[in-house]
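Our consortium's second objective concerns turning raw sequence data into structural hypotheses that experimental partners can test. To show how far this objective has progressed, the report includes one record in full. It was chosen at random from the queue rather than selected for favorable results. The single chain below, 537 residues long, was entered without modification.
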Amino acid sequence: MSALRPPTLGPIVGHTTPTSCRLWMRAGDPADRGSQLSEDRRTIGVLTVLDERGKPVPGDPARSAYFRLHREYDRTGTFNLGVQAGLNTQDHQNVFALQPDTAYRVKMGSLVLDDAFPNDQSVNDAEIARRLPPADVWSEDLAGLPTEAAEARFKTFPVRQKRFSFLLGSCHYPGLFWKKKHSDRIFGPMLQRMQRRRMGKKPQFVLMVGDQIYADMLNKAIPIGLADTFEEFQDRYFGAFGSRNMRRLLRNTPQYMILDDHEIEDNWTQDAINSDRQKRILFNLAIGAYMSYQWSHGPRNFDGRLYYHFDCGGFPFFVLDQRTQRYKDDEPGLADNHMLGRPPQDPVREPGQLNHLLNWLSEHKNDSRPKFIVSPTVFVPNPVLTTRSDRHKDKSDSWPAFPETRRALLKHIVEHRIQNVVFLSGDIHCSNVARISFSGPPAVKALKAFSITSSAFYWPFWFADGEPSHYVHDSKKEGDTFEIDAARGIQMDYRAGSFTQKDNFCQIDVDWPQRKIGVRAFGKRGDLILSSTLNLA
């Protein structure tokens, strides 16, 4: 057994509830990158919960635990504190219990074990635990590891709340050559915002809604900077999550992430893997890395699917996977395009992502509090070009190319009278806020919905895309009204504003008693760029 070492990457504070928190890390030395650790070594994570002063608490074995760092996930692993018992526990009686709305400090590290049977997959957790001393023997050593490299801090969510805040952003371009530090700059002000109180509370989590890495730094057709090996995808994550400011942010507040195209390849659709062997290999490498570095510290509540839902103090969120289930078939027209997966033959027994989303909306239809749908690609506004013809819509990388998916979602919202649906997006390197309205019978007209876009954390090529004039501002005036139900005269329109191309993140402040959502965009130095208020129904 080796000496205790701090994480090579992490810790990352992941999915949090009132009584649990999923914590992530990667083991190994920097020299292990690329070649990885030898296959005859096992890596084991170990953590301990510290007291308020950052000191270990002796004599409490429930505060410390071992956990697996899996080879198949690039020596990364998670421990669900407050739920998981650990390798050294045969039952759940020794689980350290977390209290709602309470701050905690944890130190994490790793051990390397010689493995006499490296190819024996039957070696289970109990057998590994038999070889290890009690985890609390490492508590003093863990407390002594460097804070910047090994300590995670978080606050559990409250059970119920009326007001709360969170941060939203996307698109972390890595920066080229001497500008790599510029890419990391904005995460410093983000951490500062997380430590400031508003409405009596600090923001409770960060939502990163796509392009946390750029596997294709220049263009998918340009081989320079194009990740197409395991080592190159690994390097993208080390560059992003290991940068100074971002690493501090990731270990000091709960994070929720979802992929968009640049975690794989620009404008990715799943059709590519059916016709191109190299694309299939690329996809497997990209998703393997994504699951290791992003998906694994999320809620993971749909049996290995990448989409998920979570709740913060009674406010629900549904996070969509719009890439690994996106299909653009070659049939003429738009009817065969599917944003959230092809329709299942038996949606009751085998529901697809769209079915899960609609069922989730129905579960919350009697509660008019905001319901947040995370859509990495922008729900509205649409690009101006897409208003010209179906051919232009089909070329879109966003919702205009998938009208049947959009219609099914909006029809469900209208038919079930679901108030205050809020779409949260990134992707387009142009932040904005849109107010969605409906025409039709009086009950339909009374519905309100909204779209908030925050993008980009860092994007130096402002002249290449994201120009506000490229997007529809008023759908009625610009011919972008969307037909939901022609027979009943039900349509969707929107008005968009508060556009900015500056590098930014948004703070979303929800005040349910006042029926308001405040949206503020902050720049790379923490300066306020713009502010909007959404009046809820």
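The partners drew two points from this record. The chain has two domains: 9-154, 162-535. The chain has 13 helices and 23 strands. Both points have been shared with the crystallography group to help prioritize constructs.
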